[in-house]
TrEMBL record:
Its EC number is 1.1.1.169. It catalyses: (R)-pantoate + NADP(+) = 2-dehydropantoate + NADPH + H(+). One of its GO terms (molecular function) is 2-dehydropantoate 2-reductase activity. It comes from Alkalicoccus saliphilus. InterPro entries: 6-PGluconate_DH-like_C_sf, 6PGD_dom2, ApbA, Ketopantoate_reductase, KPA_reductase, KPR_N, NAD(P)-bd_dom_sf. This is 2-dehydropantoate 2-reductase. One of its GO terms (biological process) is pantothenate biosynthetic process. Catalyzes the NADPH-dependent reduction of ketopantoate into pantoic acid. Pathway: Cofactor biosynthesis; (R)-pantothenate biosynthesis; (R)-pantoate from 3-methyl-2-oxobutanoate: step 2/2. One of its GO terms (cellular component) is cytoplasm. Residues 163-280 form the Ketopantoate reductase C-terminal domain. Belongs to the ketopantoate reductase family. Pfam families: ApbA, ApbA_C. Residues 3-138 form the Ketopantoate reductase N-terminal domain.
C-alpha cells in the first residue's frame, strides 16, 4: 500500500519505519527541504537499520492510498488547506482535542490515533524508538487501511477502538499534567510523582481537566501509571522547549481552559500553570518547525 505521512517529527518518522517494515511504500512530506534531502540521500535510520523512503516538501504528484497526518496542532490548519487527496483515508495523530472538530471540516470520515510508543527524533533522518507501545485508532468508519495496519502486528501494534473519544480524553488528561509541569521543572516525567510540590500541582491540574472532560477522579490512577511507566522519559513539550520550538500549550491546557470557561468550571490551576510556562519561555526565540 502507498502511504503518505505528513510530518517529519518523531511520530511521523517512527510510523514510516514501522510501515516500511510491514512492506508498505512510504512517502514523507516534510516542512523543510533540508530534512527531505537528508532522508532521500541517507535513508531513514532507526535502531541501526536504514530504510529507503521518499521525501519531499511537495506532494502534489503523489497518489497515496492513505494519508497519516502527524504534525503539531498549530500547523494543522495550514496542512489541511494544502493539497491532500480527499478520497483516501486520513489518519490524524495529534495531542489535545481541538483537532477532531477541525478534521471533520476537511474530511467526511477522519480517523484518529493516540500513540503510546516512545520516540525521539535524533536528527532530520533518524528516530530512536525509546519504548514499545500501541497505535490506538478509531473513527466513524473502519477502512481497509486500518485492517491492514492491524495485520502488521508488532512492532507497530495497531488496534481499533470503538470509543476513540475516550482514548483521546485519557491522553489529554496525561498531557495536561505532564507536559507543562515538566517544562516548568525541566525534568523527566517521574519527578512529578517524586517531588511533593510537583505532585500536588499535577493533581490539581488533573482535577480540573477531569471535570472539564467529564472523567471520573479514579482516572488519576491511569495518569500515575503512565507517569511511572515513562518516568525516565522527557515529555514532548519539554523537548520542544529545549530545542527552542513553539509549545502546544494552546491545544492542551489552553483547550482545557477554553472548555472549562464555556462550562463554567473553575480552571484556575491551568490558568496559573499556563501563565508560568509562558513567562518561562517569553525570552526564547521560537522556531515553528
Amino acid at each position: 500500500m502507498d502511504i503518505m505521512i505528513i510530518g517529519g517529527g518523531a511520530v511521523g518518522l517512527l510510523s514510516a519505519v514501522f510501515l516500511k517494515q510491514a512492506g508498505c511504500n512510504v512517502m514523507i512530506r516534510t516542512r523543510t527541504e533540508k530534512q527531505a534531502e537528508a532522508i532521500n540521500e541517507d535513508g531513514l535510520k532507526m535502531d541501526g537499520e536504514i530504510w529507503e523512503v521518499k521525501a519531499s516538501t511537495d506532494s502534489s504528484s503523489w497518489k497515496p492510498e492513505a494519508v497519516i497526518i502527524a504534525v503539531k496542532q498549530y500547523h494543522l490548519e495550514e496542512i489541511l488547506n494544502s493539497n491532500i487527496p480527499a478520497e483516501v483515508p486520513w489518519l490524524f495523530i495529534q495531542n489535545g482535542m481541538g483537532h477532531t472538530e477541525l478534521a471533520e471540516k476537511f474530511h467526511s470520515a477522519p480517523l484518529f490515533s493516540i500513540v503510546t510508543h516512545g520516540a525521539v527524533r535524533k536528527g532530520p533522518a533518524e528516530v530512536i524508538h525509546t519504548g514499545s507501545g500501541k497505535f490506538i485508532i478509531g473513527g466513524s468508519v473502519k477502512s481497509g487501511f486500518i485492517e491492514m495496519l492491524e495485520k502488521t502486528g508488532a512492532p507497530m501494534n495497531a488496534e481499533w477502538t470503538d470509543n476513540i473519544q475516550l482514548q483521546l480524553k485519557k491522553k489529554l488528561l496525561v498531557n495536561a499534567v505532564v507536559n507543562p509541569l515538566t517544562v516548568l521543572y525541566e525534568t523527566r516525567n517521574g519527578y512529578l510523582l517524586e517531588n511533593t510540590k510537583a505532585k500536588e500541582e499535577a493533581y490539581k491540574l488533573f482535577e480540573e481537566a477531569a471535570e472539564v472532560l467529564n472523567m471520573p477522579k479514579s482516572s488519576w490512577a491511569f495518569v500515575e501509571e503512565i507517569i511511572e511507566s515513562t518516568k525516565l522519559n522527557y515529555s514532548s513539550m519539554l523537548m520542544d522547549y529545549k530545542k527552542g520550538r513553539a509549545l502546544e500549550l494552546e491545544s492542551i491546557n489552553g483547550w482545557i481552559i477554553k472548555e472549562g470557561t464555556n462550562q463554567n468550571i473553575a480552571v484556575s490551576e491551568n490558568l496559573r500553570i499556563v501563565e508560568a510556562v509562558k513567562n518561562k519561555v517569553s525570552s526564547r526565540v521560537i522556531r515553528r518547525d
